[in-house]
Amino acid sequence: MSSIGDVVIEFEHVVKTFHPSGAPAVRAVDDISFQIRAGETVGLIGESGSGKSTTGRLLLGLERHDSGVIRYRGRSVDEMDVAERRRMRTDVQVVFQEPYESLNPRLRIGDIVAEPLVVRGLGDRTERRKRVAERLERVGLAASVMSRFPGELSGGQQQRVGIARAIVADPRVLVLDEPTASLDRTIRAQVADVLTQLQTELGLGYLLITHDMGTVRRVADRALVMLAGRIVEDGPVEQVMNNPQADYSRLLIGSELKPYPPALENRGDLR
Amino acid sequence: MSLLTVENLSIDYHTRDGDLRVVDDISFHVNEAEIVGLVGESGSGKSAVIHAVAGLPRNVIATSHGRVTIDGSDMLTAGHRELRALHGSRIGFVGQNPFGSLHPTLKISTQFHNVLKAHGKTSSRRESFELATETLKLVGIREPERVLRGYANQLSGGMAQRVVIGIAAVLKPRFFIADEPTTALDPTVQIQILEVLRGLRESLGMSILIVTHDLGVVANYCDRMLVMRSGSLLEQGAVRDLFSDATHPYTRELLDVDAHEGGQL
Amino acid sequence: MKRWGGFLLRRLLLVVVSLWALVTIAFLLVSLLPSDPARAVAGEYATDEQIAAISAELGLDQPLWARYGQFLGELLTGSLGTDIYTGDPVAAEITDRLPSTLELIILGLAVATIVGLALGAVSAYYHRKWQDKFSGGVVAVLQSLPDFVIAVVCLYVFFHVLGWLPGPEGQLSITAVRPPTVTGMIIVDSLFAGQWDTFWDAVRHAVLPCLALGLALGALFARVSRVALREALESEQTRFARACGLSEGSVLRYALLTARTPILTYGAIMFASMVGGTAIIETVFNWNGVSQWSVQAMLTNNFPAIQGFIVVAGTITLFVYVFLDVLTGVLDPRIRLARVGR
Fold it and tell me: Domain for residue B247, yes or no?
C-alpha cells in the first residue's frame, strides 16, 4: 500500500436532506463524519438508499450540504471564495460507473481526455496532447488510442479512459462511483490494479463508493459502512471486512457469497 | 433424467459487418431438479446460448445448428405456436432488470392475468387474482394482495424481482432460465432471491439454469457449472469438482480472481 | 387528492399567466407590422386627410400603451375588436368559422392516427425486413409531398376520374339545407337535427379534405410512432412478455401502452398546430374554416383580425397542452403514485 499523508478531505457532522414534492423529506446523509488522507483509499460500502452516492455528490460539489462542515485541505467549503472553490473542483475528480455512458460517443478519445484541460484553459494544444498521451499510458493504454472512438474500445478500456480523464488535470482526490461494477471479473481486477498503482505514484486520495466487497478488499485502506444515511462502521479494511462489529455490517458483509462451495471451506489449498 | 439437452449447438450471427460464430459446437444437459450455473464473461456467447435454449428471438438475424431439446420439444425447429405454448407453461425466463421486465403502466394483477389467460388457465380475474396470490406467497412476498393491486414502480428492487419470478413461475414450469437474476440487486437482497429460486426447486422440482458472472453464486447455489469463453464450452462438471480441481487455465484464472478478492490481501 | 388540487391550481395559474403573455405578444407583434393598415383600407388614391381620418377612426393615432389598454379592456368584455374591412366583430367571424376547422382537424387527425399508427407499427414490428422498407417508403413519399399536392391528387382521382366524391365546393353542395347551428359543425348539427340528407352530403364533402389532411399528417405521425414502438418492442419487457407465452398481439398491445405518452404528446402538438395549419387544405377545398380566413387577414393587414386569431389559436393551444399534461398524469402511474413500500 502507498504511504499515507495528511488529511485532505474531512466531513464533520454533515447532513443533507432532500425534499421531493408530495413526499416526506428524506435525510439522505444523516450526520456523517470521516476523513480521507493523501494516498489513502476510503471504501464507502452500502446498498441503494444508504446515502453513499449522495456523499460522493456532496464531495464533488454537485449537492450542497445542509449542515455540518466539509473541509478540503483544512479549509471549510462554506468559507471558500470563488477562486478557491474552482480550485477544489479541479482537484476533486470523479470516475463513473458506466464507462460507455460517461464518454461522449461522438468524440475521439484524445478530445475526451483533454476536455478538463480545455475547460480550464490549461496549456496549449501541444502541451495538452503530450499530457493526454502521458496519462493514457499511465493507465495502461497506448497513446495511439487517442484517435479512436469510445465505441471501438472494450468496457475495461473505456473505464481506463475515464480514469485518464479524471487524472489529466492533476487532481488530489478521486471519487470512484462503482468504478468496476459493470466490468467482467478479470477486467475488474486489472482496473483495480491500475487505480492502486496510480494512487501510489500520484499520492491521490480515493473515495471508493461501491457495494462490491471484492474491490473494497483489493483497493481500500479503510472501510465505512453506511445504512440509511449514517455510518455504522468505520475502521481499517481488514478489520471491517473480516470481523465486522455492527449488526448491519455483519449482515451486509455476510451476504457476500464466498467463492468456494461450503463443502470445500476447510481446504487450505483453495485460499 | 435429462430435462434440457443441448447437442452440438452452434450459432452464427449475421450482422451488417459480416457473420460471427458466437457459439461453437457446445453440448451439455440439465437434469431434473438440478441447478446449473453458466459462467462466462462478456463475449463468451452465454447470452446467445440462453436465448436459443429459451427459444426467444433476438434483434439480430441468427442461424443455429445442432439440437436443443427441452422435455421432448426441439427449441430450434419448433414453430411459433409450439414455442408460445411452451413459454411460461414449461419454460420460465427471468432477466436481470426487474423494472425492465414488468410493464410500467399495468397493474401487477393484470400482468398475471394476461399470462394465465394466454394459456387458457383462468376464466376470471378473480381466479387469476387467487392464483397470483398463492404464487406471490411462494416467492416470499408477505402482502400479496397489496402488491397485486399496485404497480411496478411502487416496489423495491428485491420485491420487483420476486414478482417477476412469480409471473414466470405462475404456471409451474419445469425448467427455469435466470439471466443474471441478482446482478442488478443489492448484496443483501441477492441472497434472498437466490433462496427464492432454490425454494422453487424444492417445492416444484424445477430445474434452473442460472447465468452469472459471480462465482460466489455458483459456489453456493449450483450443483453443476458450465464455463464458457469466446463461444466455446471450456469446462463443465460438478461444482465441487471444478472448484477443487479445475483443469482449464481460464477457469483457474476466474477462481483465482475471486480467491484474491474473497479474503486474501 | 390534496396533491391533485395543488397541481391543478398551479397549472391553472400558469395558464392565466401564459394567456396574458400570449395576448400581449399578439398585440406587440401586430403593432410592429410594417405597413399602414389605414392606408390599406383607404385605398391607393386616398388623400392624406382621408388616411388620417381613417387612422383616427381605427384608433391608430393613439400611443401604444393606450391602444394596449383598450385592447385588454375589450378582451375582458369578450370583444376581439372589429374587422377593419367588413366592420363585423372579429369574435363573431372566428366563431363562425372555427367549428368547420375543428371538424376538419378532428376527422383529419383520426385518419392520421390510423394511418400513422398502422405504418409505424408495421415498420417497428418488421424492423429491417421488407415490410419495414415498404412502409418506410410510403411514409417518405407522403412526407415529401406538400399537403396541397396530396389534396389535388385526391381530388383528381376520386372526383375527376372516379366521380365518387364531390369536388372542391366546400362543406355542402349548393342545394343542401343547412342545419340549425348548435355546435357550428355541420356534420354534428345535421345529426342533431335529424336531417339525414344534409348529414350524408356533409360527410361526403368531408371525406377528401380529411383524407388529404390525414395522409399529410399521418406520415409525420408514422415516424414518431415507429421510433416509440421500436424502442418498446426491443425492450426487455417485450422479451419477458414473450417468455411468458403472450401472443404477438398482446406483445404489440403492451408496446403500444408503453409508447402511449410520446404518441399522445405528438398528437396534441399536431392538433394545436393545425389551428391555422389547415389553411392550404381549406383553400383547395373551399372550406369555410378559420385557418384560411386568418391567412387572408394577414395578407390584407387586417390587424384586429390577426390579433384576434393569435389570441384564439394560442388559447386553444394552451388548453390542449394542459389537457395533455393532465391526461398523461392520469394514465401513467409512475407520475401519479410515489414509491410506497420496501
Answer: yes
Distance of residue C2 Cα from the nearest chain A Cα, in angstroms: 9
From C338, which residue of chain A is nearest by alpha-carbon distance? A23
Handedness of CA A138, A144, A145, A149 (dihedral sign): positive
| Chains near B (3 or more Cβ pairs under 8 Å) | A, C
User: pLDDT per residue over A20-59, tens digit each?
Assistant: 876 788 899 999 999 999 999 999 999 888 899 999 999 9
Q: Does residue B25 lie in a domain region?
A: yes
Task: Report chain B's C-alpha Rg in angstroms.
Answer: 19
Q: How many domains does chain B have?
A: 1
Using CB atoms, pick whichever of C236, C260, C337 lies closest to residue B97.
Answer: C236
Look at residue B71 and tell me if it is in a domain.
yes
Beta bridge partners of residue A211, listed in sequence order = none
Q: Search chain B and give the residue with CA nearest C231.
A: B59
Helical spans, DSSP H, in C32-146: 37-42, 48-58, 64-76, 90-125, 130-144
- Cβ atoms of B61 and B14 closer than 8 Å: yes
**Domain assignment of residue B256, yes or no:** yes
Q: Is residue A218 part of a domain?
A: yes
Lowest mean pLDDT among B26-30, B219-223, C129-133, C194-198: C194-198
Shortest CA gap A127–chain B (Å): 37
CB contact under 8 A, B114 and C235: no
Contact C250 B59 (CB under 8 A): no
Domain count across chain A? 1
Q: Which domain holds residue B34?
A: 2-94+174-261
